[in-house]
């Protein structure tokens, strides 16, 4: 649904599930008014009125596993990024994540090398279009990533100056750019908590979770 400023339903927006977009969990409105919708079955594009954008052709889409565990974000170009338990997109081999052109084709200029050795569960684009990527992996493009968290350049190249100084028990619940830093929630240091990392991955000492908050759960999300 789309709501008017007063909370009423906007009758000009008439979304109806199409193809595999019947579980919409993430939405981004692009500068041209079109809408990217993502869910466990993949990424699709709508016109501003909620109808399917037929100029966006995902072909056979993703293969071979659909899951609620996936990463998604959109860079300033309007190109969406998607990661998860993925080996192919529209017949093109991918390394657990892909950037998609505005017409739905895979963007072959986005290159993560050998990529992660296990699935991606979180993707966040920073203000400069660099990416923070988290997941079940402990290696990325042949380099150790014991925290399951890496930083990529905008084109997918691994930023080897970023080293996260923690080893989570499970993939990140959520992460978000926090000025020049990164806010994350996960199982860290034996408990479910929130921490802030500096731009190079080191732990920030100027953020301390209030003592009244003793734990967080997997539904913790940042806005």
- Share of helical residues: under 10%
Apparent shape: globular
Average pLDDT taken over every residue = 90
- Residues in β-strands, percent: 25-35%
Q: Count the E strands.
A: 17
Give the low-confidence spans. Answer: none
Q: Helices and strands, in N-to-C order?
A: EEEEEEEEEEEEEEEEE
Biggest sheet: strands, sense, closure?
Answer: 3 strands, antiparallel
Short description:
The chain is built from no helices and 17 strands. With 223 residues, it is mostly beta strands. It has a 3-stranded antiparallel sheet with strand order 1-2-3, with no helix packed on it. It has a 3-stranded antiparallel sheet with strand order 4-7-8, with no helix packed on it. It has a 3-stranded antiparallel sheet with strand order 5-6-9, with no helix packed on it.
Structure description:
It is a single chain. With 223 residues, the protein is mostly beta strands. The protein has no helices and 17 strands. Strand 15 and strand 16 form a beta hairpin. The model has no long low-confidence stretch (mean pLDDT 90).
Summarize the helices and strands and which ones pair or pack.
Elements: E1 26-29, E2 35-39, E3 42-46, E4 62-64, E5 71-74, E6 80-83, E7 86-89, E8 92-93, E9 97-99, E10 120-125, E11 131-135, E12 139-140, E13 143-144, E14 149-152, E15 174-178, E16 181-188, E17 191-197
Antiparallel strand pairs: 1-2, 2-3, 4-7, 5-6, 6-9, 7-8, 10-11, 11-14, 12-13, 15-16, 16-17
Sum up the structure in keywords.
single chain; 223 residues; mainly beta; three-stranded antiparallel beta sheet; 33% strand
């Amino acid at each position: 649904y789309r709501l008017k400023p007063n909370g009423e339903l906007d009758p000009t927006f008439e979304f109806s599930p199409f193809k595999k977009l019947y579980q919409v969990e993430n939405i981004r409105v692009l500068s041209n008014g079109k809408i990217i919708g993502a869910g466990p079955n993949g990424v699709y594009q709508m016109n501003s009125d909620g109808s399917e954008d037929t100029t966006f052709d995902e072909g056979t889409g993703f293969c071979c596993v659909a899951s609620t565990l996936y990463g998604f974000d959109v860079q300033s170009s309007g190109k969406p990024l998607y990661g998860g338990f993925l080996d192919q997109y529209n017949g093109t081999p991918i390394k657990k994540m892909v950037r998609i052109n505005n017409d739905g084709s895979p963007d072959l200029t986005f290159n993560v090398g050998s990529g992660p050795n296990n699935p991606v569960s979180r993707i966040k684009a920073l203000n400069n279009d660099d990416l923070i990527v988290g997941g079940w992996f402990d290696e990325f493009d042949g380099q150790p990533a014991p925290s399951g968290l890496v930083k990529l350049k905008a084109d997918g190249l691994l930023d080897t100056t970023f080293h996260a100084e923690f080893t989570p028990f499970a993939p990140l619940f959520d992460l978000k750019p926090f000025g020049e830093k990164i806010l994350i929630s996960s199982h860290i240091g034996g408990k479910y908590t929130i921490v802030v990392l500096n731009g190079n991955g080191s732990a920030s000492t100027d953020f301390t979770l209030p003592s009244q908050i003793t734990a967080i759960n997997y539904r913790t999300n940042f806005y």
